[in-house]
Amino acid sequence: MQKAIIGKKVGMAQIFDKDGKVIPVTVIEAGPCPVVQKKTVEKEGYSAVQLGFEDVAERKLSKGELGHIKKAGVAPKRELREFKLNDADKFEVGDIIRADMFAEGDYVDITGISKGHGYAGVVKRWGQAVQCHTHGVGPVHRSPGSMGANTDPSRVMPGKRLAGHMGVEQVTVQNLVVVKVDADLNLIAVCGAVPGPKGGIVCIKSTTKVHRVKNAVKTVSTNPQKASARR
Question: How many CA atoms lie less than 13 Å away from 153 in the CB half-sphere?
Fold first, then answer.
C-alpha cells in the first residue's frame, strides 16, 4: 500500500538504538492532513488524493481557494498537495491522515525545497576547482575559466556551468528509513538529512525504488579451477 502525508521540518536530532549506536535523524511534524479532494479515473482520468496541511486564516486565501476548501467541509489550509496513489479509492473527502500511517522500518522518499544561498560562484555552486594561487594567475582564482571557442561559434554554449542563483529548488531524497513515529505528537523521525530549512514544508511518500541491501551476500564459485586461480 502506498502512503503519503505532508509535514513540516522541525530539525535534526540523535536517537540511540538498542545497541547504543547513535542514529542521526530528522524530525518532521507530519499531519494531520485532511483529504480535500479525491480524483478518480472516471472523471479526471487518474486516481489521486489532494491533502491539506496547517490551518490558516481565511483572509490569507483567495475566494477560489476558500470555495475549494469549504466544498470539502474542512478548515482553511495553508498547503495543498496532490499524491497519486494506487489505492486512492479507499480514501474519502474529509478523512484525516495522521503520522501513524507510517511505521518504523518503512522506506520513504521526502521532497522539499532546498535552502537558498543567493548568488554564488562556480566554486560554491558547482564544486569547480580553484585555480593555482601562484604568480601570473592574476585575480581570477575562482573564475569559471575558459568560455569555449572564440570566432566560431562566437557564443557561450548552453549548459555551461556558470555563476548564478543557488538553491531554492525542489529536491527529493530517496530511501530514507523511518526510525520512530509518535502518533500523539504527530512526529516522524527519519534517518538522515532532509532538504530545506527548519520550518520548511516537505512531502513524505512511500519509496518508488527497491531498497538495495547494503550487506549483500558474496557468492563464491564452486569451480575448482577458478578457486585455484584466485589463490
Answer: 5
